[in-house]
Design brief:
The complex is a heterodimer of chains A (about 100) and B (about 375).
Chain A lengths: L14 E3 L3 E6 L2 E6 L4 E5 L2 H9 L6 H7 L7 H13 L3 E3 L2
Antiparallel strand pairs in A: 1-5, 2-3, 3-4
Chain B lengths: L2 H6 L7 E5 L25 H13 L4 E5 L9 H10 L3 E6 L6 H8 L4 E6 L5 H8 L3 H14 L6 E6 L7 H11 L2 E6 L6 H8 L3 H14 L33 E2 L4 E3 L10 E4 H4 L1 H7 L1 H6 L14 H4 L4 H6 L15 H6 L41
Parallel strand pairs in B: 1-2, 1-7, 2-3, 3-4, 4-5, 5-6
Antiparallel strand pairs in B: 7-8, 8-9
Classes of the chains: A alpha+beta (about 100), B alpha/beta (about 375).
Chain lengths: ~100, ~375
């Protein structure tokens, strides 16, 4: 479950959705399912879904957030959400 | 709106669903939730099952929990598993282990999209076999040996917590750890034949409290299928969604295509439709029963209880099959309101589960015959 995580998330690194993750858009955001870890996660807003889906094409998570229209003041909230997703391997760093 | 509220109002497709592929079973567990034993001749054909999988793919259902009966005794079972995973529908199936040979274990280990759950209801053969039948412990352990030897990785060992095994939680955990498997504990419901043994098998209040403490200690390392949310009334919520997902985020497709609100609610009152009529999607989206379940529920007699926000009145099926009103307390309410409510109802008049597929009357402690009898639909194919 996506809940508080204290791990630092590097906004300036390049990230992508794990290839074993399926995304199902929902009214509230999206459901994510990781076939490798067999875990379910929730994206609690459609804006966060836009960010996650934009990771792969963006040079950094910071750019993905900007492209999705995340206001600078809300960046820490998104960083926290991405940290949670990284902790459960839903998103991984691109090498 | 909080996420849990979103789920209470239902989703466009289930998060996961249970699909009982057959009522046929080589065992005759006394607490079987689907009263399984004999195959129903109206069972969905291979082509009909494939059509359901096609729909699940379109609806983006991530995975199905396949059960039964014993699903692996269907001759097309492995083909259906392959069909589902090829169509991006992951499969988690429950088995008593009867068909998990070394060759099958190797085949399963090769797929990332198949998960296996072996049922075990006692950490020792005596406790397990009293409920699941003579030899069933050895069968399950052999299946686990084969999965481990094939390098399957983290398969699940699925335990229904009863009065007789509630004291074996550490032993179950040790068995799982020994295999590198994950332990899954679920709640006994008075569903199917479980209605007949409920009074003798459901955990005592003291065992329930000990179970809650044990689950809190073990956190997300032990799975529960979200089935103990009624225990949240003790204080802290257990990991999981902590709500009744019936008809909202989960449901059941039974072997003949009937869609029920939940696997533990096989009764006409919870029958939403049949996939043969217009497909599963239509039942999920348009059933009046499901629309009703997705409306805000009143807490009824529980509304004034301080625990209601956490336990939400408990399990619908547990209430229904013990004769309690759906808007009242769970029979195992941790505040004891269930016991009080039960004392005012006539248990003999509680609704009976629909559809009994038992081969013979099943009672606790009954030892099945050594050899499959000639009338058995599985005679000759279970070894």
């Amino acid at each position: 479950m996506a809940c508080a995580a204290s791990t630092e998330f590097d906004l300036d690194a390049a990230w992508r959705l794990h290839p074993g993750v399926s995304v199902r858009p929902e009214r509230f955001g999206a459901l994510l399912y990781h076939f490798g870890t067999r875990r379910l996660s929730f994206l609690k807003s459609t804006a966060l879904l836009d960010v996650v889906q934009g990771l792969d094409a963006a040079p950094s998570a910071r750019v993905a957030c900007a492209t999705a229209g995340v206001p600078a003041g809300e960046l820490p909230t998104y960083q926290q959400a991405l940290a949670t997703l990284a902790a459960s391997q839903m998103v991984v760093e691109r090498s | 709106m909080k996420l849990v509220e979103q789920f209470q109002y239902g989703l466009d497709a289930p998060i996961c669903l249970t699909w009982e592929l057959t009522y046929a079973c080589n065992l005759a567990c006394t607490h079987c939730l689907s009263s399984s034993g004999r195959r129903d001749p109206r069972e969905l054909s291979t082509a009909e099952c494939q059509a359901v999988i096609d729909e699940l793919e379109r609806m983006q259902v991530f995975y199905v929990n396949i059960g039964g009966g014993e699903p692996t005794v269907r001759s097309d079972f492995w083909d259906l598993v392959d069909y589902a995973t090829a169509h991006h529908v992951g499969v988690k199936f429950s088995t008593n282990g009867v068909k998990i040979t070394p060759a099958i274990a190797a085949r399963l280990a090769a797929s990332d999209y198949v998960d296996v759950q072996v049922s075990l209801d006692g950490a020792t053969a005596d406790v397990n076999d009293a409920v699941r039948g003579a030899g069933s412990y050895a069968t399950a352990r052999r299946a686990m040996d084969n999965l481990a030897a094939a390098g399957f990785g983290q398969f699940k060992i699925s335990v229904v917590v009863t009065r007789h095994n509630a004291g074996q939680l550490d032993e179950f955990k040790a068995i799982a750890d020994g295999y590198g498997a994950q332990l899954r504990l679920t709640r006994l419901r008075p569903s199917g034949r479980g209605a007949d043994v409920w009074d003798d098998l459901h955990p005592t209040a003291a065992q329930q409290r000990a179970l809650y403490d044990w689950l809190l200690d073990h956190g997300e390392g032990v799975l529960t299928g979200d089935s103990f949310f009624h225990l949240a009334g003790y204080g802290e919520s257990l990991p999981g969604l902590n709500l009744c997902g019936a008809g909202r985020v989960v449901c059941l497709i039974d072997p003949v295509g009937d869609v029920y609100a939940c696997p533990f609610a096989i009764h006409d009152n919870f029958l939403a439709g049949n996939v043969r009529d217009a497909g599963f999607d239509k039942v999920w989206r348009e059933s009046e029963l499901f629309a009703d379940l997705r409306r805000p529920q009143s807490g009824g007699a529980c509304a004034s209880c301080s625990a209601f926000d956490s336990c939400r009145g408990g399990c619908m099926a547990a209430k229904f099959f013990t004769g309690l009103p759906l808007d009242g307390p769970d029979p195992e309410c941790v505040r004891g309101h269930g016991e009080t409510a039960l004392s005012t109802v006539d248990g003999a008049r509680a609704p009976r589960p629909s559809g009994d597929h038992s081969r013979v009357p099943v009672t606790i402690g009954r030892r099945p015959p050594e050899r499959a009898c000639d009338e058995s639909p599985l005679a000759g194919i279970t070894h």
